[in-house]
Structure formats: structure tokens, C-alpha cells
């Protein structure tokens, strides 16, 4: 049947030959025509295959998904060109997702996996060193903190996840250099590993001593979602700054069965909601609608009839409320600026393809293909991709969302936006310029800053303050 | 040291430590309340209806009293070095030989005498003067004295400016290379060398304007440990887990950091004069330099090289472009991907009939930013809501159409779904666009073939 139409007009594209070949998995030939594919063709084909495979996975036609994955396996490679690398991680993520339909097999398959904490820390360090994104976020955050703390004598900074001391060393220097002299500085660091905190304490204390600044580092060994706000020991009279570097999105994870949340925080949120509702009815309605579409499930068994019940109880609400209760002078939030929290797989696949493609492109331009560091960094990104694609419920931590959504959420929780200063932007721009690569772009969005690779937004940095 | 010899006729009084430290020497016999001065005690006695008497100042000449410190090892123990004031000796004794009970809240300084502590608290953190080398002063005179001295050093190093920076660079790089970076060694730099920038400028402006100059070495040295990946390198750490990282890559990384550090220094020095013009150039300027660690050593590949392989982002955009066969994207977005809906017919070009549509497809699309069309061509998805503005959508969620009879992989077209999709690609339609930008119609025909098949057909036909 193919011969009728397919062979009559033959062009040079090897892809034409495709229908001649069997697509069934049993076929032994490794698609010889694949070798002849030019990189661009191969890349496009990979995209097509990924989309197709995801569709099949979404709809449950695992057999077809399997075939697609098989084809991908012939084209994708973790050390090939950008698209090949991306495709290999995405196909792994899809495979992971498929495998979960057989829980026993899945668990057995992963049972001997060991995650090495030091690897994670090392790779994060590489991200910090070799790409500018994290540094730019640090520079902007620190500037926002310094500006907010002008005139303050007692400053308390809480870092929701301390991994990189450079940010705080720089802040210590910034504060010691200010015209009115340094304040008394306390930094509280949160991390799951005690050793990391000890290292941090050592480095920062040393830095502060060098500059003769009264300084104290308080370590808190805890997971962010289990954080006990009391432990933070925020004292009255001290000015509080909170720094969140790509941490808050993990709090968006919620077990979809958990619809109720403790009454108190919700009431607080209710107050905010009412306030918002009063201010602008339309906004609230839209907000709720958007929330519902994006994963907040309406609570069927909620006792109250207030709009609260339609907002799912995620850890984020309780957390933000607790933070709000500390009346922070400034809260600086850095987040991945892309919507990877869509309800459907296809949405997430689509968005994450664009996002990680940009990141992988950036790595391609920064490091050679043979670079081991790059490979490890991509592997870490691959883990993120896997989480976005394959996991659901509480397990899916990488719930990145667009800045706009975060804005709404913070406003709802009782925070007011603090526009980032011109000077912060200037520093950020200068820093990016020093990389002498014009792929990095920075733009301002409603007082917040978005760092992009080419036109693709990657990271957003915004600042907030407690509002009564 | 001043040597003021006391009046030889003065009466030397040696008080015991206890009396010197005693705060309330005058005690009321009735209630045992203590007072520092006798006059206060007398006034207090009035309250008890006791006889009281305020001493008058005697008219006759009072003999001068001098006090010596009871501490034998103290200089002031010698009568010739006695102090002339009782309060003075008391304070001296506390300061030198007493316990420091008063602690400054803001810094860690401790004081034995309350008035000292108070005086310090007032000025703690209110330093006004800062020398270019980084030292802070609360008093103008000490600031000026220091700066004169400091400037002298600067003059010297300025003379060696052409030579110094490279020397420093090398030195610093060597330091970077070594695994054990001694921060102490580095911190000498700001004190010993003026910033190269300072050297480059002519006069030493004796004004606070000096604050405007970026402070290179201070920050530089301070950045070293971090660029050096201290946590990982520090061998003295007792946490092997935390530090465990493959040793093969560490040196590479350090080299990279060092190399980029090198670049940074060069860039900074050359850019320094320009930066003078910058407005709020002060500290913050230098601070951001913390992060100026990577320059041209990174990004060796040109991203806009015409012959370079297409970036993944470009590929995605191209795929979207190709997949999207609708000419009017905004309409698509507006209707929430009305691709799949009957609304679609409102979009002019769309031809729901099975007709060759090469011409339609080749007409192009203004903003082919979504892979929506591709998705449509691959699987025919149902209508879903548009999630927000102009974010390109790869495709919309698939569903109902997917699980059906045509689970094609290659270029699946669900021919049967015309009614629903209204649009989707029937047969030869959408794929007329060159899927791979290769030759026009063949693919379409191929696709059309595919459309009527499902996988089983494929394998059967093989």
C-alpha cells in the first residue's frame, strides 16, 4: 500500500524510507536510515517522538509509548548534541512514568539507588560557578536586603536552604561597608544536613570576624516543609529578611487527598481573601478559577461555604502564613519562571521542553560537549525533569510556576511587592555582561527581575514585605 | 608618655582595693542604705530624724591628695606616679585590674567601667571615616593620622603600578592553585597594597570621595576562598561525606576558577577607570565584583554562528512552526486552541475538507510559536483551555482522540476524527508542510498513507 503513493515521488530525505520499515519492536534492524539524518532533522524528529510518546502515555496506550521510546533510544544520547541530550532525559522521565504503573517492578528497579548528597552539593556549586543565574540572583537579593535594612541595627536573615556561602559572605561585606556602619547580624540557615550547616557556620563566622562585625550563625537542621517557625527564634526589635532560592515551589506539593488544612492558617488566609475580594471581585474569581485549573482541587467535604474551601490546602499556604506572622521586613524569592505545575502531563511536557531546552542550550554554549561537569549538571537537570514528568502528588516537588502566579499567591498571603531598585538591575546587568555571551538577558517585570536565556525566561527574582 | 611629677608636698593616700571598688562607702546606720557621698548620706539621715550635718567647704587650704594604685605590679603603685583624683584612681583600678562586666550590645567589646561602656555604646557602629584601605574610624584625628601613613604606602606601590598588578595576579593565582588557601595571607593585601585603581589615579584625594573607588583587593581576596570551592577543598574538615567529590574534576574546576579569576582581574583593572563615572559606584560596585568571576573564558562557542548546529530552542520553535498549520495563531490562542473545535472554521484558511492543502500550509504563520499544530498533527487533541496569554504551547492535552483506533506514531493522523477535530489534519492535509523542511508533497502523501493506518497495519504491511 505504501508503494502506491510513497514510492512515486522520492526525494533525498531518508525519512521517506521510514514507512518502508517496520515500526514494531520486534524488527531487528536499527533503522539504518537514522544514521543519515542530519542533526536538525534528527532534532525535529526527536521532538515529534517525545510529543507523541507523551500523548500515548497520557492516554494510556503504553504499547505505543513503548515503540516511541524505542525509536527515541536510537536517536537520543546524553552526550550528543543539545536536542539529543534533552531527549534522553525526557525519554527517561517518560519511561519512569510508565514504569510506575507497575509499582512492584518500579520499586525493585530503584531499590538499589543511592543518592549521594555530596554530588548534589558539588553540582550546585558548579551551577553557581559556571553559569551566572545563581550569582545574579544573589546579587539582586543581597541588594534588596541591604536596601531594606538601611538604618537597621539588628538584622536577622533567614536562608531557607543554605548551600552556597558566597551569598552571605557578600552580604556580610556589603553590610560592613555601609556608611552607617554594620549592624549586628544574625543569619539563620536551614538545611537537612548538619555537616553543611557546620561548614556554613565556619565560613561565615570567619568572614564576619575578618571584618569585625558582630555576627551569629544559627543552624537549623530541618526539611523546609517540617520547619517549626518557633525554632527560628525571631526576636522583637530585629529586622527580619528571608531569602528563598528556588525552595518555595516544593511546598506546592500536596497530597490531592488532603483537602483540609488546620483552621487557623486558613482563617488568616480567609482574611486576606476577603480583603482581596472586597478590593476586586473579579480578581478573586479569576484567581480561584485559575487555581482550580492548575491543580487546586475543590474540597468536597469542607465545612465552610466560603471561597476558602476551593483553595487546596498546600503546605505553601501554611508556610507563607507562618512567615507572614514573623512580619519580615523583606522576603526575597528566586524561582524558576516557567509553569511546570500544570495538571496534565502534556502541559508540563510542553512547558518543560522549552524551559530545559533553553538551559541545555545555555550549557552547550558554556561548556564543551565532553565536559564532565556539564554532564553532571545536565544529569541533575534530568532529575528535575523526571520529577516534573513522572511524579504526582507529594512526590512531585519541582512545581515551578510563573512569576505572575507567585505574585498572586504572595499578595493573597499578605505581602506587598517591593520593587527591585534600579541599582540592583544595574549590578545584575553588569554581572551578565562580564560573561561576554549575549545569550543572557535580563528584563524587568512589574518591579521584579527575570533572567532569561535568549528569549526564554529562566529565573525570576522578586522582593516582598510584610503588609498589615 | 607624659611624666608629670606630683607635688612633693602632696599627701599620698593608699587605699585598699576594697575601698577603691566600694561604691557605697557611706552607710546609713538605721537602714543600712549605702551612698557614694557623705553629703547624700547626711541628707538621707534627715529622713530618719537623725542629726545631720553637711560639711562645709573648709576655708583653709586643703592639702592636695594623691592616690596610688594598690596593685603592686602597676605603674601607678609608685608614689611618684600617683594619680591626683580619687575618681580617676578608682576608674583606673577597675579598668586595669578589674573585671569587665559591661558588654557592648552591638559588638563584643567589654568594659569594666560603666561610663566607658556608655561612651562606647554611643559611638559603636557610627563610624564616620573610612580610609581607602578599608579601615574604619570614629574619630577624625585618628583617621587623618592613619591616612597620612596609609597614603605614604600608596605612593610607594603606585610607583610600581605597571609591575604590581601582574605580580599580584600571579601571586594570587598561585594561592588559588594551592589547595590550602590561607585566608590570613590574603587579608594582608588590602593593608599592604592600595588598589591598583588607586594607583592609577593621580592625586590622593583626601576626602570621603575615596569611597567611590571600587575596592579591588579587599573583595578579591575575600572572594578567593569561595571561588576556590573552599568547602570542598578544605582538608581539615572532618566531614568526608559532605566533602566527597570526585577528585578528578576538582582540580579542573579550580583551574577553571583560577583561570577565570585571572580574566576577571584583567577585566576589572581595565574597566576601573570607566567605572569611576558610575554613580553609586561605591562599595556596592566592588561587592558585585564578587561575582565577576567568569568572563571570556566561558562560552567559547559563538551562539550565533551561522553554521553552528541549531539550538534546541530553535528546533522547538521550528517544530512548532512546522506543526502549526494555521495561519492565524492569535485566533488559535484566543479561542483556546480552537484547533480542535468547530470554531476553527472561523479561521479563514482552514479547509476542513480532504483537499490537498499545500498552498494553505505553506502560507505562513506570523507567530508560529506553538507546537500546537505539531501536536495536532501527531495526535489530534481535544480542546483545552488556554492557560495564559502568549506562552507558546507545545500542544494541548491529548485525550479523547488519542486512545482511539489510530495510534500512529510516526505521523499519526486521525482521519476518522474529522467531525470532532474539525480540523485536524485529515489525510494529506496538515502534513503537507515539510515536516523536516524537505521537499513538499512527498511527506504529505506519505502521511496521508499513514493516516489511514494504524500500527498494526504498518507491521502487517512489512
UniProtKB/TrEMBL annotation, chain A:
Keywords: Transcription, Transcription regulation. Residues 390-465 are annotated as: SAW. A motif (LXXLL motif) lies at residues 248-252. InterPro entries: TF_GRAS. Residues 124-189 are annotated as: VHIID. Residues 199-231 are annotated as: Leucine repeat II (LRII). It comes from the Eukaryota. A motif (VHIID) lies at residues 155-159. Belongs to the GRAS family. This is Scarecrow-like 3.
UniProtKB/TrEMBL annotation, chain B:
InterPro entries: C2CH-3rd_BIRD-IDD, C2CH-4th_BIRD-IDD, C2H2-2nd_BIRD-IDD, IDD1-16, Znf_C2H2_sf, Znf_C2H2_type. It comes from the Eukaryota. Gene3D superfamilies: Classic Zinc Finger. GO terms for cellular component: nucleus. The keyword Ion transport does not apply. Keywords: DNA-binding, Metal-binding, Repeat, Transcription, Transcription regulation, Zinc, Zinc-finger. This is Zinc finger protein JACKDAW-like. It comes from Dorcoceras hygrometricum.
Amino acid at each position: 500500500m505504501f508503494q502506491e503513493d510513497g514510492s512515486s515521488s522520492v526525494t533525498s530525505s531518508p525519512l521517506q524510507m521510514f514507512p518502508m520499515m517496520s515500526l514494531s519492536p520486534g524488527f531487528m534492524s536499527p533503522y539504518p536510515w537514522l544514521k543519515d539524518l542530519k542533526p536538525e532533522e534528527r532534532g525535529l524528529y526527536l521532538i515529534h517522538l517525545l510529543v507523541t510518546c507523551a500523548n500515548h502515555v497520557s492516554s494510556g496506550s503504553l504499547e505505543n509509548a513503548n515503540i516511541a521510546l524505542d525509536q527515541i533510544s536510537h536517536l537520543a544520547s546524553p552526550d550528543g548534541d543539545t536536542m539529543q541530550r534533552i531527549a534522553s532525559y525526557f525519554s527517561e522521565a517518560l519511561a519512569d512514568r510508565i514504569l510506575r504503573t507497575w509499582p512492584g517492578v518500579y520499586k525493585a528497579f530503584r531499590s538499589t539507588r543511592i543518592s549521594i548528597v555530596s554530588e548534589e552539593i558539588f553540582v550546585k556549586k558548579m551551577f553557581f560557578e559556571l553559569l551566572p543565574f545563581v550569582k545574579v540572583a544573589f546579587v539582586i537579593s543581597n541588594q534588596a536586603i541591604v536596601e531594606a535594612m538601611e538604618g537597621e541595627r539588628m538584622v536577622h536573615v533567614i536562608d531557607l536552604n543554605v548551600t552556597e556561602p558566597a551569598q552571605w559572605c557578600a552580604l556580610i561585606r556589603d553590610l560592613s561597608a555601609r556608611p552607617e556602619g554594620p549592624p549586628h547580624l544574625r543569619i539563620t540557615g536551614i538545611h537537612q544536613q548538619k555537616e553543611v550547616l557546620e561548614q556554613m557556620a565556619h565560613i561565615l563566622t570567619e568572614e564576619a570576624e575578618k571584618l569585625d562585625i558582630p555576627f551569629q550563625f544559627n543552624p537549623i537542621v530541618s526539611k523546609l516543609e517540617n520547619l517549626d517557625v518557633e525554632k527560628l527564634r525571631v526576636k522583637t526589635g530585629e529586622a527580619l529578611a528571608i531569602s528563598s532560592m528556588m525552595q518555595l515551589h516544593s511546598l506546592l506539593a500536596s497530597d490531592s487527598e488532603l483537602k483540609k488544612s488546620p483552621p487557623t492558617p486558613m482563617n488568616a488566609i480567609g482574611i486576606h481573601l476577603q480583603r482581596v475580594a472586597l478590593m476586586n471581585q473579579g480578581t478573586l474569581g479569576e484567581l480561584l478559577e485559575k487555581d482550580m485549573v492548575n491543580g487546586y482541587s475543590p474540597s468536597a467535604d469542607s465545612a465552610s461555604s466560603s471561597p476558602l474551601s476551593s483553595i487546596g490546602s498546600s503546605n505553601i499556604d501554611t508556610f507563607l502564613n507562618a512567615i507572614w506572622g514573623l512580619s519580615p521586613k523583606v522576603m526575597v524569592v528566586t524561582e524558576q519562571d516557567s509553569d511546570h505545575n500544570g495538571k496534565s502531563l502534556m502541559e508540563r511536557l510542553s512547558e518543560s521542553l522549552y524551559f530545559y531546552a533553553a538551559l541545555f542550550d545555555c550549557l552547550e554554549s558554556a561548556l564543551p560537549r565532553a565536559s564532565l561537569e556539564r554532564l553532571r549538571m545536565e544529569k541533575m537537570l534530568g532529575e528535575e525533569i523526571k520529577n516534573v514528568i513522572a511524579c504526582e502528588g507529594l512526590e512531585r516537588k519541582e512545581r515551578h510556576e510563573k512569576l505572575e502566579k507567585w505574585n498572586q499567591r504572595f499578595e493573597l498571603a499578605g505581602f506587598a511587592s517591593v520593587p527591585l531598585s534600579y541599582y540592583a538591575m544595574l549590578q545584575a546587568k553588569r554581572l551578565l555582561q562580564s560573561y561576554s555571551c549575549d545569550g543572557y538577558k535580563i528584563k524587568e517585570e512589574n518591579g521584579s527581575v527575570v533572567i532569561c536565556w535568549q528569549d526564554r525566561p529562566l529565573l525570576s527574582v522578586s522582593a516582598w514585605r510584610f503588609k498589615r | 608618655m607624659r611624666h608629670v611629677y606630683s607635688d612633693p608636698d602632696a599627701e599620698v593616700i593608699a587605699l585598699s582595693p576594697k575601698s577603691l571598688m566600694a561604691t557605697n562607702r557611706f552607710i546609713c546606720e538605721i537602714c543600712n542604705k549605702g551612698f557614694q557621698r557623705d553629703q547624700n548620706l547626711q541628707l538621707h539621715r534627715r529622713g530618719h530624724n537623725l542629726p545631720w550635718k553637711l560639711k562645709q567647704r573648709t576655708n583653709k587650704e586643703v592639702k592636695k591628695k594623691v592616690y596610688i594604685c594598690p596593685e603592686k605590679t602597676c605603674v601607678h603603685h609608685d608614689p611618684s606616679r600617683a594619680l591626683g583624683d580619687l575618681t580617676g584612681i578608682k576608674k583606673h583600678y577597675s579598668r586595669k585590674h578589674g573585671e569587665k562586666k559591661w558588654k557592648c550590645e552591638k559588638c563584643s567589646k567589654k568594659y569594666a567601667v560603666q561610663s566607658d561602656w556608655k561612651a562606647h555604646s554611643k559611638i559603636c557602629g557610627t563610624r564616620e571615616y573610612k580610609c581607602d584601605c578599608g579601615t574604619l574610624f570614629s574619630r577624625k584625628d585618628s583617621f587623618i593620622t592613619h591616612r597620612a601613613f596609609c597614603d605614604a604606602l600608596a605612593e610607594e606601590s603606585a610607583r610600581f603600578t605597571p609591575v604590581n598588578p601582574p605580580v599580584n595576579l600571579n601571586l594570587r593565582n598561585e594561592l588559588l592553585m594551592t589547595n590550602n588557601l590561607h585566608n590570613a595571607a590574603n587579608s594582608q593585601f588590602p593593608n599592604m597594597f592600595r588598589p591598583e585603581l588607586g594607583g592609577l589615579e593621580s592625586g590622593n584625594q583626601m576626602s570621603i570621595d575615596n569611597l567611590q573607588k571600587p575596592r579591588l583587593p579587599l573583595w578579591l581576596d575575600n572572594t578567593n576562598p569561595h571561588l576556590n570551592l573552599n568547602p570542598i577543598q578544605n582538608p581539615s574538615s572532618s566531614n568526608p561525606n559532605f566533602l566527597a567529590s570526585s577528585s578528578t574534576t576538582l582540580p579542573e574546576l579550580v583551574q577553571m576558577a583560577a583561570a577565570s579569576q585571572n580574566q576577571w582581574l584583567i577585566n576589572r583593572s581595565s574597566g576601573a577607570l570607566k567605572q569611576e563615572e558610575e554613580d553609586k559606584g561605591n562599595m556596592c560596585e566592588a561587592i558585585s565584583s564578587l561575582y565577576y568571576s567568569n568572563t571570556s573564558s566561558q562560552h567559547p562557542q559563538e551562539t550565533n554562528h551561522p553554521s553552528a548546529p541549531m539550538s534546541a530552542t530553535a528546533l522547538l520553535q521550528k517544530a512548532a512552526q512546522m506543526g502549526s498549520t494555521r495561519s492565524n495563531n492569535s485566533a488559535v490562542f484566543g479561542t483556546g486552541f480552537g484547533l480542535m473545535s468547530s470554531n476553527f472554521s472561523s479561521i479563514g484558511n482552514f479547509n476542513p475538507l480532504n483537499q490537498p492543502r499545500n498552498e494553505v500550509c505553506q502560507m505562513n504563520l506570523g507567530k508560529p510559536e506553538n507546537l500546537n499544530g505539531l501536536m495536532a498533527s501527531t495526535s489530534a487533541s481535544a480542546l483545552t483551555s488556554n492557560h495564559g496569554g502568549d506562552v507558546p504551547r507545545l500542544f494541548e492535552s491529548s485525550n479523547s482522540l488519542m486512545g482511539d483506533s489510530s495510534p500512529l506514531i510516526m505521523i499519526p493522523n486521525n482521519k476518522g476524527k474529522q467531525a470532532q477535530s474539525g480540523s485536524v489534519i485529515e489525510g494529506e492535509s496538515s502534513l503537507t508542510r515539510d515536516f523536516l523542511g524537505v521537499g513538499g508533497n512527498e511527506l504529505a502523501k506519505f502521511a496521508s498513507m499513514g493516516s489511514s493506518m494504524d500500527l498494526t497495519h504498518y507491521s502487517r504491511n512489512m
